[in-house]
Amino acid sequence: MEPMPLKADMDLIAAGWERRFLAEPDRVEEAVEIYRSLGLEIRAEPLGPADFGPDCQDCASEVCKSYVLIYTRKPPS
User: Between vectors from CA 54 to CA 11 and to CA 69, what angle results, nearest 5°?
Assistant: First the structure.
């Protein structure tokens, strides 16, 4: 499997968040509920053109209109 051509938000990674996947708009709430039921914190971050690498600029403007990047982390103890 090829790596995801989306750039992770390094500030979120440094704060303990883990990038999970790119969610279709109609599946975001389902993903949030699943991760929440596992006891994880969830961030659903909308995408912008800066989130895409140079190989994906042609499609970035279309995808970033609706897709969401899901991040999770364990809650603080």
Answer: 45
Q: In terms of DSSP bridges, do strands 41-46 and 18-23 run parallel, antiparallel, or are they unpaired?
A: unpaired
Q: Collapsing DSSP states into helix, strand and coil, what is residue 47?
A: coil
Do 71 and 43 form a contact (C-beta atoms < 8 A)?
yes
Q: What sign does the CA torsion over 74, 34, 70, 55 have?
A: positive
Distance CA 52, CA 64 (A): 9
**Is the predicted pLDDT of residue 24 greater than 60, yes or no?**
yes
Range 34-59 average pLDDT = 84
Query: What's the whole-model pTM score?
Result: 0.77
Q: What angle do CA 1, 49, 60 make, to 5 degrees?
A: 55
Task: Decide if 23 contacts 68 (C-beta within 8 A).
Answer: yes
Distance CA 19, CA 37 (A): 18
